[in-house]
Design a protein that fits this description.
2 domains, single chain
């Protein structure tokens, strides 16, 4: 069987050529990174959980008419996605003061914001993904005004949906980030949700205790990251309540020099 061609490798995922034109296979790695990859560990089972949680959320968004790149899950670590032109921005929606917002503005972490706040960050690891304004986005042609309007509308709709979804299982959606992409349907361009939506990209706190179920567990050394992500999956009904160890699923195996030369 021929090997799939790798298209791109990021900190948490790998993209391979898909089985059909216009598709990719997205593979979820076990890598956990923070502080622009200055902190890095391999945490067994993380990729499986993010794949399943993102599948659950993306599938639900598709079901309510919010367009995403997700097509279907392939196995425990992989999903089939639509190819799209990624817009070089992260869109962050904040409901509660936390992380960089609390530091920048001197707000106590945990304070509710008067309304959801939308922020933009330019995707560039070498620059540390700096925060940018709409003026920067338009001036540097990363997106046009119609794109921005569509991006904000999608982000706020996702926020409404996720807030209700998580609140229903006793979790507060503090903030989240999404990536978006462009696809063309005939002569018409459409903006869709891309990348993933998982505890890697959301801040999720228990409604009653404030316990964190997101990547801050890794950033701040607050406990076992897989246990935190598994709790989210259990509450969403993805894992059984009595479920023990997370099934690791297939591993990414690097080809040996002999295999590469064969």
């Amino acid at each position: 069987m021929s090997r799939r061609r790798m298209v791109y490798e990021g900190k948490a995922k790998i993209l391979y050529e898909g089985p059909e034109p216009g598709t990719y296979i997205q593979y979820f790695k076990d890598d956990a990174t923070a502080f622009n990859a200055e902190k890095h560990e391999i945490i067994d089972g993380k990729g499986v959980l993010n794949n399943r949680i993102s599948e659950h959320i993306m599938g639900a968004l598709n079901g309510i008419g919010v367009p995403t790149h997700f097509i279907r899950r392939v196995n425990m670590r992989e999903q089939l996605i639509r190819a799209c032109e990624i817009i070089p921005l992260e869109v962050v929606v904040r409901n509660v003061a936390a992380g960089s917002l609390a530091k920048r503005l001197g707000i106590d972490e945990g304070d509710a914001l008067p309304r959801p706040i939308v922020e933009y960050y330019y995707k560039d690891d070498k620059l540390g993904d700096p925060m940018v304004s709409e003026e920067h986005i338009l001036a540097f042609n990363w997106a046009n005004q119609q794109d921005l309007d569509d991006m904000v509308a999608l982000a706020l709709r996702v926020n409404d949906f996720l807030s209700g979804l998580f609140l229903g299982v006793g979790i507060k959606l503090v903030d989240f980030k999404i990536e978006l992409g462009r696809i063309w349907e005939g002569d018409f361009q459409r903006i869709i949700i891309a990348d993933e939506i998982s505890p890697d990209s959301c801040r999720l706190w228990d409604v009653d205790s404030g316990k964190k179920f997101d990547k801050d567990v890794f950033r701040r050394d607050l406990g076992n990251l897989v246990d935190a992500y598994a709790e989210v999956a259990k509450r969403l009904g993805i894992l059984p309540e009595s479920g023990g160890a997370v099934v690791a699923g297939p591993k990414l195996v690097k080809a040996s020099k002999k295999e590469k030369g064969s």
